[in-house]
Amino acid sequence: MAYLRFKAVEEAAKRQPLVPEAPSNKVSDYYKSASFDMDKMKQSLSPDVFKKVKYSIENGKKIDEDTADAVAAAVKTWAISHGVTTYTHWFQPLTGSTAEKHDSFFDAISGIEKFKGSALIQQEPDASSFPSGGIRQTFEARGYTAWDPSSPMFLWGTTLCIPTIFVSYTSEALDYKAPLLKALEAVDKAATSVCKLFDRNISKVTGSLGCEQEYFLIDKALHNSRPDLVMAGRTVFGHNPARGQQLDDHYFGSIPPRVYSYMRDFEIECHKLGIPVTTRHNEVAPSQFEVAPLFEEINVGTDHNLLMMDVMRKVADKHNFVVLFHEKPFAALNGTGKHNNWSLITDTGVNLFQPSSSARENLLFLTFFVVTIKAVHAYSDILRASIASAGNDFRLGANEAPPAIISVFIGSQLTEVLNELESNGNIKIEKGDNMYMKLGIDKIPEIILDNTDRNRTSPFAFTGNKFEFRAVGGSANVGQPMTALNTIVAEQLSLFKEEVDGLMKDGKEKRLAIVEVLRKYIKESKDVRFEGDGYSEEWVKEAEKRKLPNVKDTPRALDAYLVKKSKELFNKHSVMNDKELEARNEVLLENYIMKVQIESRVMGDLSLNHIIPTAIAYQNKLINNATGLASLGLDNTAVLKVIEKITEHIDAVKSGVLDMIDERRRVNKIEDSREKAIEYCDNVKGKYFEQIRYHVDKLELFVDDEDWPLVKYREMLFIR
Ligand code: ADP
Ligand code: MG
Predict the structure, then answer these.
(1) Which atom of ligand 1 is nearest to the CA of 453?
(2) What mean pLDDT value characterizes the chain?
(3) Helices and strands (H, E) in the chain, number of each type
(4) Closest CA to 214 of 96, 311, 335
(5) What would the mean pLDDT of 617-645 be, rounded to a whole number?
(6) Which ligand has the nearest atom to the CA of 458?
(7) Beta strands in 273-329, from DSSP E residues, in sequence order
(8) 208 lines ligand 1 (CB under 6 A)
(9) C-alpha distances in angstroms, 457 versus 250, 409, 595?
(10) Alpha-carbon torsion, ordered 212, 217, 223, 224, to 10 deg
(11) What is the Cα–Cα distance from 632 to 315, expressed in whole angstroms?
(12) How confident is the model at residue 3, as a pLDDT?
């Protein structure tokens, strides 16, 4: 029974690091060598064409067919010179991963390699198998992909990959990228207009994103011997190892050699693609690690995060590892998140979240800082929905994880600044006064990184010159939370601007008008600010008092996309229309249902086919032992006790699984997706998962180690 397990353990233990080969000792020699970036365009296009492309990219404008023809010809030549034979539109359907459909450059009719601008601009993948939440049925049968020139094309293997959006023929978004691009446009517009209150020279604001990606690395043989990891990406069973993460010795510890080689190798591949990965280290849990790139423009940063995950998967395979991005692959160990470091930067080079030594600039900083906090308070439900997934439910709101309450941490120094600004409300400011001094915003400490980075329990933290959205799941397409965040901030910025304009119209001096609105926002959004331990029971109670939502599961969190306020918001900024929101909601619910269903099936199969037979075999051994002892007239009470325990757990697993299967049958008949998802959440997962697991994990403790069929936690996590 346990043959496969021991074979896997043996295989894993024998492995040696696979030393990677870098094209050169200097990264700068090969950085971006596989990316058709601006420099390459400039080199290979005529100045006229390049100017047009650059203009289109910077202003989000369509590229005409002639220009596209020129780009296509240039990129074809470049790609073929690198041994590339095919091209594909690379897009991000709502399944959560990326998709491709390869076409050959070679045209058999003419006998030469061809790549026309039209093929660069648009393609029609057979989209019928991608989820659309009913959009295609309602409108048109087909969807198409359209080139996004703002994200560089890249080479992967022998294929040229072209980043694209994916939309239906009636132009409803069927992906994560299309709404993101619109949200970025909205935040640019709103932020620029607010910036103009301070500096007329600012004409564009760009969002930036740096994703800290956590992951687990498990030996391939060990991984493949666990059907739950293979099918569901997480272990549904497995008793805690004697040693978990309690020693805290893994964090920032030295990286194991095999892992180190793997990291080096995928970093080399990332660098070729122009993904600026810079940091690597161990994480808290055993076999958990983190990689972070330098931040980039949000759309490119999002593509790069997705691409990086893909690279990491493929390179892992070469090193006989499997990389796990699932939010909670192992119970009782830290989950896997993806901190989204986010800021807004002007075309004059100012990071709007960077406090400054100049008081005047600090009013600009405070404006964006306070408006963001206010936006998070006003729309925390949308942020929560944007990170909802079956996997992330194990991280947020489950009993060993942080709660699903969205709050903002800003650190003590900035709390003081906001408190002072709030209470200085009645100060009268005369002409010639130093307003900044009177309001106490003349000296915001410029360097507050140390102070603000301490709180690791906050889902949304200010860390010195950026906000960090930390509740995002490890496997997520960050396009989703980034769409939500940038849209709500765009909305709050435009409301802010309207209010300030209103006050100015009534004759208020500009800076005083700004301060007045900020003070109001500080008061109104105070409840969302929390500086304490976000994982504590007290916070859950306190948040309830403050009426902050604490939505623990995906099916209910997703409701936020459909309330009137959200629909109005997304419509107003042309990010998503009602149809798109409804479709998205539907797809996400279906996705949730499928995930829980798969886990439930895996649990059933493992229990019935692996666990119970093993436990019964062992039970029989013990029964033989007990009767043997009795026939010799020896005391067998201890054995009987163990038999009793094992029998109890076997029965509990059996009846639990059978009841769960019945429940699934009932729930599967439900038509309405929301209702079905809630039933899956409450009555399949909620009632049975932990209960079955409890008894299986107990059996793991009782049954002879020689017989246990599943690779154990200690083997998965400590052999590498
Ligand atoms: P940690 O949170 O672990 O201390 P770092 O301070 O190294 O991590 O930064 C994490 C990420 O934040 C990196 O990807 C970094 O590039 C990114 N980052 C830094 N400044 C900004 C910014 N202004 N906007 C967006 N991301 C940023
Ligand atoms: Mg961080």
Answers:
(1) 4
(2) 91
(3) 29, 18
(4) 335
(5) 96
(6) 2
(7) 277-282, 288-293, 296-297, 321-324
(8) yes
(9) 19, 9, 27
(10) 80
(11) 60
(12) 84
CB atoms within 10 A of CB 247: 10
List the domain boundaries for the chain: 2-10+24-175, 184-576, 589-718
Fold (topology level) of 589-718: Four Helix Bundle (Hemerythrin (Met), subunit A) (1.20.120)
* Intra-chain end-to-end CA distance of the chain, in Å: 24
- Residue to probe by mutation, ligand 1, list 345, 356, 466, 467, most atoms within 8 Å of CB: 466
Q: Out of 211, 279, 294, 295, give the residue to mutate to test ligand 1, the one with the largest number of ligand atoms within 8 Å of its CB.
A: 295
Structure confidence at residue 140 as a pLDDT band (50, 70, 90): very low
At 403, the pLDDT band (50, 70, 90 cuts) reads confident
Q: Using CA of residue 233, residue 236, residue 237, residue 238, what is the dihedral sign?
A: positive
The predicted-structure confidence for 186-225, as pLDDT tens digits, reads as follows 999 999 999 999 999 999 999 999 999 999 999 999 999 9
Residue range 479-518, pLDDT digits in tens: 999 999 999 999 999 999 999 999 999 999 898 899 999 9
Token pair 């990316």: residue = 35
Contact 266, 311 (CB under 8 A): yes
Asked if the domains 2-10+24-175 and 184-576 are classified in one and the same CATH topology, the answer is no
What superfamily in CATH does domain 2-10+24-175 come from? Glutamine synthetase, N-terminal domain (3.10.20.70)
Q: How far is the CA of 315 from the centre of ligand 2 (A)?
A: 25
Contact present, 2 and 708 (Cβ < 8 Å) = yes
| Ligand 1 atom 14: residue of nearest CA | 210
DSSP strands (E only) in 459-524: 460-462, 467-469
The CATH class given to the 184-576 domain equals alpha beta
In one-letter notation, the amino acid at residue 490 is: A
CB 343 near ligand 1, within 6 Å: yes
Nearest CA-CA partner of 688 in 701, 679, 698: 679
User: How many whole angstroms from 339 Cα to the centroid of ligand 2?
Assistant: 6
**CA dihedral sign, ordered 214, 219, 224, 226:** negative
* DSSP H or E segment with residue 511: helix 510-524
Is the Cβ atom of 214 under 6 angstroms away from ligand 1? no
Q: Which ligand is nearest to the CA of 293?
A: 1
> Structure tokens of 324?
């796990």
Q: How far is the CA of 156 from the centre of ligand 2 (A)?
A: 29
Distances (CA, A) of 330 to 14, 327, 424, 714: 24, 9, 50, 11
Whether 354 is in the pocket of ligand 1, judged by its Cβ within 6 Å, is no
Q: Which residue has the higher pLDDT, 176 or 102?
A: 176
Contact 345, 501 (CB under 8 A): no
Identify whether the C-beta of residue 613 lies closer than 8 Å to the C-beta of residue 696: no
Residue 434 per-residue DSSP state: -
At 96 the pLDDT is 77
* Residue 611: CB atoms within 10 Å: 27
What is the pLDDT at residue 457? 86
Neighbours of 463 (CB within 10 A): 23
Which residues does residue 288 pair with via DSSP β-bridges, in sequence order?
Answer: 216
